[in-house]
Specification:
Helices cover about 40% and strands about 15% of the residues. It has about 325 residues and is an alpha/beta fold. The longest helix is centred in the middle third of the chain and has 18 residues. Bound molecules: flavin mononucleotide.
């Protein structure tokens, strides 16, 4: 019987499947359901800095650059899930489950990250995921601006807490490897690849734009997990696009330390966790891998590069152009 237990950010998990941050993980009851269904850990629904500002009565001028956030805040949209409430959720859930609980925060300004981090740590969170939203679209800002922004937040949070910290990233950021390398070098325990944003579409009749729900992309996750695994000094977590147990195996082979899943649970319910685990278990038994460490990263870029003469198959990870695919 293969052993599916694993470490993640120094935490002990009985298996590598984590319910990722979403509305399925908001209450102690939700967390208990995840644990009963067999999840290795949970990441709580992100709490947004705007909620703090309401509670702490901080000057709205801090939001001059983020009018949507201010609108949302003023409409009371985030009040239902305030920071104290999140701390209560953590404290209560810790009494009910023995799986690690990772809190998540999404901030727009630098000020309140450390305060939030301390609060959730005091409430009993086993780890913290920083859901940093910073999309590079200004012509005048170089990639280093965004890298430094991530670094600064992570550094301040690390100064305030002793629990492990991960950073959830978007692929739309300059030199992901360099950023992850810098984060890891400064003590970040893991990066989560990736968060998604709303997608945009254009209505050519009405000449309007509209936002569509975002979606995780398995192939992008496999690619970046494989390119980074074992080349940076932190765990690489995957988040996006998992539809079945085979996808979990693919991400582990690419080098993922753990696999976060969200949309699949909306579609099929949390009971699908046991199916996913059975598939991984059967596959490991079939291929004679007794423990996850034996298979993890077997198809990572680093491992492939070492195994093959030249680049061999590892070239697949950075063959972005389609010349070879379509040329006989
Ligand atoms: C309804 C919903 C709410 C989400 N809320 C959050 C959130 O608060 N914080 C966060 O970091 N990610 C959030 N996500 C993103 C997921 O955690 C996950 O990264 C993304 O859905 C990709 O994984 P998937 O393909 O398995 O769904 C949310 C996703 C959905 C569908």
């Amino acid at each position: 019987m293969p052993d599916l237990s694993t470490d993640y950010m120094g935490l002990k998990l009985k298996n590598p499947l984590i319910v990722s941050s979403c509305d399925l993980v908001k209450t102690p009851e939700d967390i208990e359901k995840c644990a009963v269904a067999g999840a290795g850990a949970v990441v709580l629904k992100s709490i947004f800095e705007e909620q703090f500002i309401i509670e702490a009565d901080i000057d709205n001028s801090a939001f001059s650059g983020y009018p949507e956030a201010l609108d949302y805040m003023q409409s009371g949209g985030l009040m239902e899930y305030a920071p104290n409430a999140m701390c209560d959720v953590i404290t209560e859930a810790k009494k009910r489950v023995d799986i690690p609980i990772i809190a998540s925060i999404n901030c727009q300004t630098d000020k309140l990250w450390p305060s939030f981090a301390q609060q959730v740590q005091d409430a009993g969170a086993d780890g913290l995921e920083l859901n940093i939203y910073a999309m590079p679209f200004e012509i005048g800002k170089p990639g280093t601006f965004f890298e430094d922004h991530h670094l600064k937040i992570m550094r301040e949070v690390k100064k305030s807490v002793s629990v492990p910290v991960s950073v959830k990233l978007t692929p739309e950021i300059t030199s992901l490897p360099h950023l992850v390398h810098r984060l890891a070098d400064e003590g970040c325990e893991a990066v989560v690849l990736f968060n998604w944003f709303m997608r945009v579409d254009i209505n050519i009749e009405k000449l309007t734009t509209r936002s569509l729900k975002g979606a995780g992309d398995l192939s992008t996750c496999i690619k970046w997990v494989a390119l980074l695994a074992d080349r940076v000094a932190c765990d690489i977590a995957s988040s996006g696009g998992v539809r079945n147990g085979e996808d979990v195996v693919k991400l582990l082979l690419a080098g993922a330390q753990i696999v976060q899943i969200c949309s699949l649970f909306y579609q099929k319910g949390l009971s699908v966790i046991s199916e996913l685990l059975n598939t991984v278990d059967r596959w490991m038994a079939d291929k004679k891998f007794p423990v996850l460490d034996d298979l993890r990263g077997e198809l990572s870029f680093k491992k492939q590069e070492l195994q093959f003469t030249g680049l061999g198959e590892s070239g697949a990870y950075f063959r972005n152009q389609y010349l070879k695919t379509y040329t006989k």
